Amino acid sequence: MFACIHIPDFSVQASLLPEPAERRATLSRSPIAILDGPANLPRVFATNPAARRDGIQIGMTKLQAEICAGIELRKRSLAEEESAQAALLDCAATFSPRMESTAPGAAILDLAGTEKLFSRNHARSENVWQRATQIITAKTAATGLHVRIAIAANPDAAFLAARGFLDNTIIPAGDEARRLAPLPVKTLPLAPTMLETLAGWGIRTFQSLAALPTVAVVERLGQEGLYIQKLARGALVRPLLTCEPNGDFTASFEFDDPVETLESIFFILSRLLQNLCSRLLATAQATSELRLTVGLNVRQFAALCGREERERQRARRESAAAILSEPSGESKDLFEHVWKLPFPTQDKNLLFSLIRLHLEQTTFSAPVRSLCLEMIPVKPRVAQGDLFTPPSPEAEQLEITLERIRGVVGAAGSDSATGSDSAACVGSPRLLDTHKPGSFTVQNFSSVQDVQRQCHPERSRTTHAVRRSAESKDPYPFLNLEGVHVSTASLTALRLFRPALETAVELDGAKPHFVRLWNRHRRVLAASGPWSASGNWWNADAWTREEWDVVLQTPAGPGFYRIYRDRLRSQWFVEGVFD
Amino acid sequence: MALKGIDKALLKVYFRRTNSESTMQAAQLKAQIEQAIPAAFTFYPRVEHGSIPTGIAQIDNAVRGIPLNAMTEICGHSPRSSERPRLPFESGSMASSGKTSVLISLLAQATRTRFCALVDATDNFDPASGQAAGIVLPRLLWVRCGKNRGPQHARFWRDGVENSGKLPPLEQSFKVTDILLQSGGFGLIAVDISGIPERVVRRVPLSSWFRFSRVIERQPAALVFLSQEPHATSCAGLVLRASAAAPARTNLLNGNLLAPWGLNIEVVRGRDKKPVRSERAGFSRKTQWA
């Protein structure tokens, strides 16, 4: 048996789907017409029953439709229709893996072998299918779609019954012709010329078409005539063109008029997130990556503004881009941002908070015309408590906290002085595997992926330690034989100046004798060095330096500093102070 | 009111007689008082919260580690971290004090068992030093507040007011600390504001310190401020002042390497009753290369 799930007035329901449930219920009772066509002459493309009762017909112009009091006219959105179709297929996939996306707003399921899914206490087969229609209807209603369901022995009979009848229909096997007989021929997928031909012959219903002699129909209408007659008799048998459940978790919205307020954007984003999270829940999946694409109305905005205004906007945009330093890049009319979460989640509130906190710190260069949310589905997180992990911030709350902190200190920035690219302001430091001093990156901080303490020193960490310990007895003074860190005494810390301070050094032979520090010359009491290092000589990032650890005489006591000479630039710098 | 008056009189008599008269009479009096005021002699032990060891035995022996549920200040003169015009009232020093070494030693101990946060107001933290000292870097949230520097930032330092769209580093660090305290879950929150000029930190109202101390009281975490001078006054549960011990000129080098130098720690304010004379602890630190 095959079940067809059909969404009547598909375009109307698709446009109402992003609305909240209460508003959707209110709107569905009022007349709604969907307009489509060229911008200067849009015509009514679809209506709901309330609009048809008020006399709105398909093909009317916008002006004609506006005569109807209280009618709501909406622009057709293909993106919304795709979202609704995806929701329908996700819902269908929960009942049977064999399904077909037959037409916009229609899906056919192969119910073979699903009897146990719907049966209760080994009920009779008719009751099983009755119960199947109830369960499928309830499931689709939960996603916000009102559907009609027909169950028949072949897919096309189920499809035609779902389209033609106003209620759920169950057609027993072998009874298709009789049950489909009262349907009008316009239910068939016919070209307008074919429909005119049949109307000219006085063929109005399936019964009339099915009663025609087959040979005569083929002689006059060809193979297409034979095809539609088989459809009318419910005798066409074909395999199902199965499709995979839609794995694309994308929802988009296009504003009728560009908006400039965050409240409007948040309202729509909340609805889009609700839909996507519902789909994630329905398919038992979660997401760990969320991508937001905001379409900006740059061209129209620039045309409206004068030349001076345009220049000002451009300068503001450049400065905003410099401040924000978006890692994902900001093209002319698109703003993109990606949230990569350390754990999969289905929590709509968490995702919405992350988006809200980020957008509140963001300045768009033009009004917003469209929004698109994309989620990368992954398996949900299986949370298993561990008695031996340290107490940590709650993972979901931590993400919001980090986003709030980024709002205060800034998202990211490049630090050319230290050589690290795009070192973020918030996160966990991680040393890079290089000999270049001060090379590190800032990773996303996460309490979920807790790592055990590293027992091995990294090469970069040992830049000075290994080199200088060559003179001492122990090559790794801070490691014991098992490679475990031992901290029996405090270690002298280096406070770095970012960027390093340019300075002038007076030499006594090869050793520093005086160092200029904040416009004052300080005598060098002792100097340890030179410690030479170089790297990246094979590419454009070559560096070579000569380090000295010096003790400077200051009024408050000795100051222990690290200075170095950049050999490529022949310039001295103060890198930091041992504190 | 009358009953209260009587009870007070009884208590006075009890405390006077316990010293002079027999234990029996004192016990009778105690029974009478407890009849009127049941909780009069109930002993409420002071709740002893935990602490985080600093990893430096001399400090741990002196103050039993950095207290949880309390605010701690580690002070010491700090060299300025950028080229700024020197003002006559600015109390900066170019000498090393050793407070950062105490902090990274504390972080190394804390990150073994806890997640920690370091709010770095002037972006001076060196991850390589941290890892060498034993900090588990993946368990450390590093917030670099003073990273956005530029001409406007320099103007802030000169004028003492905010000129750019971003908050000044001190306000950024305080806001971030507030957020971290609200969030919870961190065992240690360290705020390094020692790179900010004293004249700017001195303007922080006492109510801010008081708020921090009140919030941290209810959390199983330690809040540590690293600054040049103590500012939180009685809001801080522990105040340590670090200073480098002046080495003899002949002992500065060990071969061609800088020799380890000593560090003095003064306990300015402890968790117990303030002593008549401040405690001092001296120790030497290891260098990263020897």
Quick gist of this model?
With 579 residues, chain A is of the alpha+beta class. Chain A has helices spanning 10-16, 21-29, 49-53, 62-66, 78-93, 115-118, 125-142, 155-164, 176-180, 192-201, 206-211, 214-233, 262-282, 298-304, 307-324, 348-360, 395-409, 462-469, and strands spanning 2-6, 32-36, 43-47, 72-75, 99-103, 106-110, 148-152, 169-170, 249-259, 286-296, 334-345, 368-378, 426-431, 440-443, 494-503, 505-508, 511-517, 520-535, 543-554, 557-566, 571-578. An 8-stranded mixed sheet of chain B has the order 5-4-6-7-3-8-11-12, sandwiched between helices. Chain B has a two-stranded antiparallel sheet with strand order 1-2. Chain B has a two-stranded antiparallel ribbon with strand order 9-10.
Task: Describe how the helices and strands are arranged.
The complex is a heterodimer of chains A (579) and B (290).
Chain A: E1 2-6, H1 10-16, H2 21-29, E2 32-36, E3 43-47, H3 49-53, H4 62-66, E4 72-75, H5 78-93, E5 99-103, E6 106-110, H6 115-118, H7 125-142, E7 148-152, H8 155-164, E8 169-170, H9 176-180, H10 192-201, H11 206-211, H12 214-233, E9 249-259, H13 262-282, E10 286-296, H14 298-304, H15 307-324, E11 334-345, H16 348-360, E12 368-378, H17 395-409, E13 426-431, E14 440-443, H18 462-469, E15 494-503, E16 505-508, E17 511-517, E18 520-535, E19 543-554, E20 557-566, E21 571-578
Parallel strand pairs in A: 2-4, 7-8
Antiparallel strand pairs in A: 1-6, 1-7, 2-3, 5-6, 9-12, 10-11, 10-12, 13-14, 15-21, 16-17, 17-18, 18-19, 19-20, 20-21
Chain B: H1 2-20, H2 23-36, E1 51-52, H3 57-63, E2 66-67, E3 70-75, H4 99-113, E4 116-120, H5 127-133, E5 140-144, H6 151-159, H7 169-183, E6 188-192, H8 198-201, H9 206-217, E7 222-227, E8 238-244, E9 253-254, E10 257-258, E11 262-269, E12 279-284
Parallel strand pairs in B: 3-7, 3-8, 4-5, 4-6, 6-7
Antiparallel strand pairs in B: 1-2, 8-11, 9-10, 11-12
